[in-house]
UniProtKB/TrEMBL annotation:
EC number of the protein: 3.1.1.2
Catalytic activity as recorded in UniProt: a phenyl acetate + H2O = a phenol + acetate + H(+); An aryl dialkyl phosphate + H2O = dialkyl phosphate + an aryl alcohol
Organism: Athene cunicularia
Name recorded for this polypeptide: Paraoxonase
Recorded superkingdom: Eukaryota
Membrane topology: Peripheral membrane protein
């Protein structure tokens, strides 16, 4: 693809969610234990990009007063549009090393986000990504069981499968899937029957069936030979686009001779006998370091990263 770096995004673009009308939300400025940040003292931001424009640029969204911007540390995001056209943006936040989910209403007229509420729960321990199911309900992945930094690394190196998926609504909160090494990206099929979960340390994508009681049951697993981060869905084809880390440990280095590479995979027909896996973008880190997400809108592709820059591509 024909790609260019996006001006103004210098400190990460960990997750990207694109509305059906082509407006893309980009979370930026993640500080994650063990992974470097290019601006450790700068609060996180949410950018907006209108992919209908010929030469789209990223604009920082203003966040309403009353929200603690200083500790804003945005991670996975998801959008929900209700029947009136109101756009809700769910943002995983890690203020002071904790996990919360922040619910915002997007006001397009003045490029702003109005903070509606902060969601905290004992089951939301170490949230990585979410997928909205309604205006105040979602599935969330916990990438670790422990939220303590040392225990989190111990859990990773011991290979414990204590990571899970939680369903949250104001009425009910419960674990709906468990046994992951580290559940990361999560998304939903266009027919809303299946939930896809990326297990980053197990190098695979799980297809789960969603039931009326919100429980998830395992359908199949697609094994890949790369670390899978966030999952985006092409609303027209149902293809899954993934930001991947081909050499994941380099994310934890801080070595200019060993930059974390970037890789974007597309999975077609995941439910079929033989899903097609295609590598659509790869870079050794000289242009783009540590790709975590790839989102598509009508032939335009946005590639985001954990702590580095972001790419705008035309396919
Ligand atoms: Ca997401
Ligand atoms: Ca992620």
């Amino acid at each position: 693809p024909n790609c260019r770096l996006i001006k103004g995004i210098e400190t990460g673009s960990e997750d990207i969610d694109i509305l059906p009308n082509g407006l893309a939300f980009i979370s930026s400025g993640l500080k994650y234990p063990g992974i470097k940040s290019l601006a450790p003292d700068k609060p996180g931001e949410i950018f907006l990009m209108d992919l209908n424009e010929d030469d789209p640029r990223a604009v920082e969204l203003r966040i309403s007063r009353g929200f603690d911007l200083a500790s804003f540390n945005p991670h996975g995001i998801s959008t929900y549009v209700d029947t009136y056209g109101t756009v809700y943006l769910f943002v995983v936040n890690h203020p002071h090393q904790k996990s919360t989910v922040e619910l915002f209403k997007f006001v397009e007229a003045d490029n702003s986000l109005v903070h509606l509420k902060t969601i905290r729960h004992d089951l939301l321990t170490s949230v990585n990504d979410i997928v909205a199911m309604g205006p105040d309900s979602f599935y969330a992945t916990n990438d670790h069981y422990f939220s303590d930094f040392i225990l989190m690394f111990l859990e990773m190196f011991l290979g414990l499968t204590w990571s899970n998926v939680v369903y949250y609504s104001p009425e009910e909160v419960k674990e709906v899937a468990a046994g992951f090494y580290s559940a990361n990206g999560i998304n939903i099929s266009p027919d809303r029957k299946y939930i896809y979960v990326a297990d980053v340390f197990d190098h695979n994508v799980h297809v789960m069936e969603k039931h009326a009681d919100w429980n998830l049951t395992h359908v199949k697993t697609l094994q890949l030979d790369t670390l899978v981060d966030n999952l985006s869905i092409d609303p027209y084809t149902g293809d899954i686009w993934i930001g991947c880390h081909p050499n994941g440990m380099k994310l934890f280095y801080d070595d200019p001779e060993n930059l974390p590479a970037s890789e974007v995979l597309r999975i077609q027909n995941i439910l079929s006998e033989e899903p097609a896996v295609t590598r659509l973008y790869a870079d050794n880190g000289s242009v783009l370091q540590g790709s975590s997400v790839a989102s598509i809108y009508e032939g335009k592709l946005l590639i985001g990263t954990v702590f580095h820059r972001a790419l705008y591509c035309e396919l």
